[in-house]
Write a structure and sequence with these properties.
The complex is a heterodimer of chains A (441) and B (78). Chain A is mainly α and 441 residues long. Chain A has a single domain, classed as Amino acid/polyamine transporter I, CATH 1.20.1740. Helices cover 76% and strands 1% of the residues of chain A. Chain A contains 19 helices and 2 strands. Chain A is globular. Chain B has 78 residues and is mostly helical. Chain B contains 2 helices and 1 strand. The longest helix of chain B has 29 residues. Chain B is elongated, with a radius of gyration of 32 Å. The chains are: A mainly alpha (441), B mainly alpha (78). Chains A and B meet through strand 1, strand 2, helix 2, helix 6 and helix 17 of A and helix 1, strand 1 and helix 2 of B.
Chain lengths: 441, 78
């Protein structure tokens, strides 16, 4: 926070700081400071509700009704704690996550993390564009035209040389997800079921099955993704958040986490509408069409447009996490504040990620199912390792000092999260290796 | 003299209750911890255990993945 008492704002008065706003009320000053800091937390959380997440949450609702809502509530504090650590690291060092791993754990781990991140991000981008193509098709727009237009628009979004312009547009896109609340309201869920299954963990009537376990793991993997760690730390560094901004950045992250979990819950309720009607579908676009025919075209169009919005949000943030990470490790200029001529390689990585992913989707009979499976496997490999590095970095007092390093209770909570993620990843691996380990539904 | 002091007091009072809010991107860059010259993290017992556990985890996961791929390819019968 830079709510500076006028008695000592030398930098502001001598002109080294631009565009200061003067106010006489402390609360107004704090609110303005919060609004200036606000952004990275909401964006990183809401962008995590990307096309894959829409598919997972809707599928969870369609298969198990409201029975997995409690899981979202459990994931709320977990996602906040993980991202809060990244915020502290970013503010304390002013460096991205990839750069920190590279410097503190050496080249081998640095390259491993970067390669894993870039590959996983790229495959995820392909799934984002696949969702855009699917939704456009159902909206009557030819994907062969629509996908390249989306790719160009997504590239243009970052080329303005202004972090603030990019952030405002993306925050606006995040807020469009408020429409999920209208959708959840329109499908008329049973309030008692929603409340009970949100508050009390329960198994569905079919019991513990492989399908249920897979959806639980997929939901966890969707809610806490490796790219988020890299993205938010780089974003905080690019925005040049100051030590005093920490409490506002934490609030931003908390608001983002709450908003994202509520939106995810609304997605499950949309899927629950299909569960109640015993519909079978393979993707959310198909479900949107079915809902549209039963409850009116608003639902169909809204879900399809929100699918595109989710994919757009996912694409810009995931591509940026790749471009920032690569730029940090290579030592290239890497900032949205820089024009193209000053950071050509940074923008080139971003554009390459977007255009190549869009191109793959347009290839007839591209192995999209294999790509989706690879994303799940790689995410399972990447997440525990990314969290371990995060936990070790947050205990690195040489870098963070006492003020920003983890406290004892932070470590306790975070080790519980790390162990939980390891166990879930191992269960997924066991399920892959021994498919008959758990009974099928 | 009294008038001058009163004016000064008023001005100081006015200055004290004025808050200046600056966007982080417009603010003077803060001096952060210099990480470039710190070198690798000291290998304490915790760090060693974590990195060994991570290696083990990755080997196990890649092993399972390879096993599954071979199974799907028909090299290993399930």
């Amino acid at each position: 926070m830079v709510t500076i008492n006028h008695a000592d704002p030398k930098e502001v008065l001598n002109g080294t700081a631009a565009k200061p706003i003067r106010v006489s009320n402390k609360w107004v000053a704090q609110a303005l400071t919060f609004l200036m800091v606000f952004g990275p937390g909401l964006i990183v959380m809401e962008a995590d509700n990307d096309a894959g997440a829409v598919s997972t949450y809707v599928q969870a609702g369609a298969q198990y009704g409201t029975h997995l809502l409690w899981l979202l509530l459990v994931l709320l504090p977990i996602s906040y704690f993980v991202q809060e650590m990244v915020v502290r690291l970013g503010i304390a060092t002013g460096q991205g996550h990839a750069a920190m791993i590279y410097r503190r754990f050496g080249k081998w781990w640095g390259r491993f993390s970067l390669a894993d991140l870039l590959l996983l991000n790229f495959l995820t981008l392909v799934t984002e564009f696949a969702a855009i193509a699917l939704a456009l098709d159902k909206l009557g727009v030819n994907p062969v035209l629509g996908v390249p237009v989306a790719a160009v628009a997504l590239t243009a979004l970052v080329l303005t040389g202004s972090y603030r312009r990019w952030e405002r547009i993306v925050v606006f896109l995040c807020l469009l997800d408020l429409a999920w609340f209208a959708i959840a309201f329109r499908v008329h869920p049973v309030a008692g079921d929603v409340f009970r299954h949100s508050m009390v963990p329960s198994l569905p009537p079919s019991g513990l099955t492989a399908g249920w376990l897979f959806l639980v793991i997929a939901t966890v993997g969707t809610t806490i993704a490796p790219w988020q760690l890299f993205f938010q730390q780089s974003c905080v560094a690019d925005k040049r958040l100051r030590f005093s901004d920490l409490k506002w950045a934490r609030l931003d992250t908390l608001i983002g986490a709450v908003f994202t979990i509520l939106v995810a819950g609304c997605m499950m309720l949309a899927g629950n509408a299909a569960f109640l009607r015993h519909w079978i579908f393979t993707d959310p676009a198909q479900m949107a069409v079915q809902l549209g025919s039963a409850l009116g075209p608003f639902l169909k169009n809204a879900i399809l447009l929100l699918m595109i919005n989710a994919a757009v949000l996912g694409t810009t943030t995931i591509s940026l996490s790749s471009a920032w990470a690569y730029g940090e490790v290579r030592g290239w200029p890497h900032s949205l504040q820089k024009p193209i001529r000053e950071a050509p390689a940074f923008y080139a990585v971003y554009a390459l990620c977007v255009i190549a992913a869009a191109g793959i989707v347009l290839i007839p009979r591209a192995p999209l199912q294999l790509i989706i499976l690879s994303v799940q496997v790689l995410a399972g490999l990447m997440l525990p390792s990314a969290i371990i590095f995060l936990q070790l970095l947050l205990n690195d007092k040489e870098v963070l000092g006492e003020r920003f390093a983890n406290k004892r209770w932070n470590n306790f909570v975070n080790w519980v999260i790390v162990i939980l993620l390891f166990v879930l990843s191992l269960l997924l691996a066991a399920q892959v290796a021994v498919p008959k380990l758990f009974p099928n539904a | 003299m009294t008038t001058l002091m009163t004016q000064q007091d008023d001005r100081m009072e006015q200055e004290r209750i004025t808050f200046v809010v600056v966007h982080p991107l417009d603010d003077v860059p803060e001096e952060k911890v210099e990480t470039e010259y710190l070198g690798p993290m000291p290998m304490t017992m915790t760090v060693k255990i974590c990195l060994y556990a991570l290696r083990g985890y990755l080997l196990l996961m890649f092993g399972l993945l390879g096993f599954r791929v071979l199974q799907l390819a028909g090299v290993i019968k399930s």
